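Revision sheet: structure tokens.
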Amino acid sequence: MKKYKVRISLLFLFPLALIINYLAAFNPHFIEKYYSLGVNRFTIKILSSITNFIPFSMYEPTIITSVIGVVGYFIYTVFSICRHKTSLKRGAVNFLLNCAVVISVAYFLFISLWGLNYNRIPLYEGLKMNNEKHTVKELGELYEYLIDKTNALREEIYVDENNIATVKGGYQSALDRAPLGYENASKEFSVLKGSFGTPKQLIFSEFFNYTGITGIYFPYTGQPGVNVNAPLMTVPATTLHEMAHQRGFAREDEANFIAFLVSSMHPDKDFQYSGYILALGNTANALYKADPELYKTLSAKKSEDVERDRKYRVEFWDKYSGKIEKVSSKVNDTYLKSNGISDGEKSYGRMVDLLLDYYMTYLK
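Predicted:
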């Protein structure tokens, strides 16, 4: 009976987490000061320091172990019922109760360890950028600016035997050099400060190509995980994106913008190029929807090398597109919406709003 009381009490962690998350949504400045920039940074630093000696992300081992555990426990329960070691009712109740307890504890830990960051103040406030509505003309100016910068950077980076942009030293070099960008960026934007464990490769990166996932931040271990089988030119920006999550920036559009911002301030050209092609692609999509003719006119200014890199990335991901990617996209969309991001995966595109804010505030 005592064991039942303990498990039932643990079930209350789930509604408690919901209440805490709900109240946090009304107090973004409190969350920013005391959680995101306070206790959460300390917690992530401790977690990522503990797991930093592991050369890969613990995301996949944890998921696999959890699935095996649930399946094994289900088989054990069925076996016990069939052998009459326990009744059908008691076996079913125990199985469902224990699963519910695990879900309750896991969700409470998610909210406590990282999830409240969805409720912090908008990034433009933290970076002291002017936030206003922008015109199509300004969007075109931004696109042209990004094209010029990307064209120039493309001439200074490493390429492979097919004249496709690559990363000096391979993916491990990108993972190792990524913190240099944050060291530079934090000198101007203190909100990006922090010393944490280094980013890790995802073990089954090839599988993640089929899901369309290029990186995963695992809040239970404080590890940014990177798909190292994606096109190498994109790995630096992806790494910085996941490191933004590690610093408590939960929203995808903000993490995308931070990836661009930090890469643009990185001392190495391959990182800079990776960030600019990320920004260029998102801005191109936005301008195409807003003014197809202006998009077509400005896109003609892209260099042949930049266009070759773009086609390579499109062809690369086309090889992996299919049902797995669609299911993965749906799961990710549902996850984002469940954390208060009403437009789900479409929120990634809102990076362009931040790019425009940054362009108008600091660059123009």
